[in-house]
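Handout, tutorial session.
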Amino acid sequence: MRTLLGTSILATLLVSASFYAGQDPAVANAAAPGNDVSVGSGFRLLRLAIPADGRVGDILRKNAAISGGFEVIDRRSIPASLVRASNFDKKAWADIGAETVVLADEVGGQFKFRLYDIASGDRPVLARGYAANDPLKAANRFMNDIIEHYTKIPGVFGSRIAFVRTTRTPTVSKNVYTVEMNGEAPSSVTSNRSLNILPSIGPGGQVLFTSYAKRNPDLWMSAGGSLQRVSTQRGLNLGGTMSPDGGTIALTLSKDGNSEIYTVDSGGNIKARLTNNKAIDGSPSWNSGGNQLAFVSNRAGGPQVFRMAANGSGAARVTKQGSYNQSPDWNPGDGERGNMIAYSGRDNSNRYDIFAINLRGGKIKRITQNPGRNLDPTWSPDGRLIAFQSSQGGIYVANEDGNNQVQIVKAGSTPDWGPRAK
């Protein structure tokens, strides 16, 4: 699992009885919060009413809740007269505490959506029409429009998250799936009795993963519905992640006896060896520009997050608090967000949580502070949301401060968030 770097520990687990028994391996000690660690603060949500019924209404309400910007008014508390009304009654909606309202009607093979802002008057501040043959896609697109209206940046609904699901009958197997970021439209990438782990979604929607389907832990890729082996070096071909331009894959290889980071092309041909030392190096993550990589190394003793240039030069330690920091994910967002690397760790009270460090000043933000173990952070394509695995139950999505946590997958591990939907 991505949460267990160094990769030599992972290699042991992959062949151990506990792994084949489907037991969760222990996670070692990680980052401890200090004076320079901040925890996401609360904020006020806009009260949003969505009276629409059917699937499109359900998806709109779910998306609004996940977006982190709205307090969604329970549809059951909305007076029937407002639910049935064909016109917008500003005063009536204000009387039930709504600050914004989304109305949706199906007309002539289209969903007609309107967003009203109570403070802006009786006319919609946003109106769009989308084909009614796909309520999920229509609801996703309009929620993205709403987010763009308020933030000037489109939302990321419709993007997909890859993850692993474990089954234990008749034998333990691990298969890769993807799901939309709101938990809708799950799809299987693999469906075999082998171990398929560590999925990563490329810029074109390709899914990379490591599989034991041919006995050796090879790197595979799913693209356009077909599966192909990419890297088949002896030993580990682990944790492949594709560069933002899609031209290069960074991964961990142990072909020479030690776990090192390499780059290969889409055919598995080695382009470069990026690390070359006695330490265990792995878990590479690209920055948005494709010119740097974050990774995990135990060259400082215990596992810590490092970064280096895409050619392997200039490696420097990033995390300096705690004895065990792991599974880095570089924020793909613009501006200051692009300086953030999320990672998972354990604090001094044995709490496993998600942290993010700002590369400019080294300030650490604690994103989760939940019971159980919170592992494997992965940023949304705009860098404003984050998904992670929780032992409390599957995969959650939260905002970048860790607030508004919503479960999207009940049983899953090692999530990776893909690009915006096209």
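The second record follows below. Compare its token runs with those of the first.
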Amino acid sequence: MSRREDYLRETIEHFDITAHDVVPLVQAMRHMAFSARDLHRAAEIYDRMLRDDGCGIILCLAGSLVSAGMGRVFADLIRFNMVDAVVSTGANIVDQDFFEALGFRHYVAAQRLKSGIEDELLRELRIDRIYDTLIDEDQLRVCDDTVRKIADRMEPRPYSSREFLEEMGRYLAETGTTGGSSTVLEAYRAEVPIFCPAFSDCSAGFGLVAHQAARAGVPMVTIDSARDFHELTRLKIASGDTGLLMIGGGVPKNFAQDAVVAAEILGHRVAMHKYAIQVTVADVRDGALSGSTLREATSWGKVDTAMEQMVYSEATIAVPLIAGYAYHRRGWENRRPRRWNRVLNAGLKSAASG
């Protein structure tokens, strides 16, 4: 008879960019071809972003990244002032990062499970599969309910996802429940905003549904996605030069790129994103946004062409090399922190007092 504990044994371990100096490896790739040379150029562009004191850096996350062992990478990018804002899918930030911050873990799936042959059994055992990774469904329900509890304690009004995620970071800081490196917690401490444009498409959605259903029409917490867009646009206007480090594509990619267009619609002349890197396995031929080139974005007035690089690689291979290279080159040491959450919150207070 199969038992849950037979499947949930070996935990996913997060990559530590501080422990591995990959600079010589990435520099050697400069003299190669194809994706190796592209990866070297992307790492050089990221290092240049960090040394450009006038540039604000936006990290975009799509795909199942934290569950795959990348959580510490993103937390460290915030901890070492290598990122000024994050735009992500809700799954990475809530179902995976916040989930692990509550003390839960993701698990290595046995090789045989990747074929899907035991998925029905996993369902019976309340175990969810993410390709070659497993997660405890009962623990996910705890994560859902924690989101509900956080919503219950907030003033009933519309919030941007950024505001709600800041409150989630405050919850982790106050309760001390973090199980390890957490992007949500580090962002709260560093006043780095996190935007999840499709916030309800994750455990946050289940928690907010429960919160709203319990109120039966009385004042409640809601998420205003247009408020998200306006806040990110305000940051673009205030920052001037910006750079994008995009892992995957989808909504986070488009949301961050579109801040330039939104600023123009509001009557501001702003520069296109000065730097842009995208790590993706999507193909431009399928017509989807995730595979569209950064040069294509130039035609929309979103990305400059001088310092852009596509890296066609699976993220768990390329990102530790790019991020590790930039960390060990140490161009971040003299960067000034932007603390964009403080900037946005001050604007909200000014609007309220006005």
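Points raised in discussion: Residues 34 and 253 are 24 Å apart (CA to CA).
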